[in-house]
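Researcher: Please predict.
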Amino acid sequence: MAIEGIHIIHAASFLGAGLAMGLGAIGPGIGEGFVGGKACEAIGKNPAEAGLLTRTMLVGQAVSESTGIYSLVIALLLLFVV
C-alpha cells in the first residue's frame, strides 16, 4: 500500500486541526483565568459591588472565549471539509 497524495492531505488536515485547537485554546484559558482572578480580587475589596463585577467578568470571559470558538470552527472545517 503506497502513500498517495490524499493521505498526505488528510494527515496535514488532522495535524492542522489539532494545532488549531491546541494553540487556540491557550489564549482563552489564560484570559478567562486572569479575568476571574481579578474579579475575585475586586469583590474581596468591595463586596457591595459583587453583582456589577460578576456581570462585567462574564462579559469579559465571553469576549475572551470567542477566539476559542473561532479556533474550534477552523478545526472542524479542517476535519470534515478538507
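Model: The mean pLDDT is 92.
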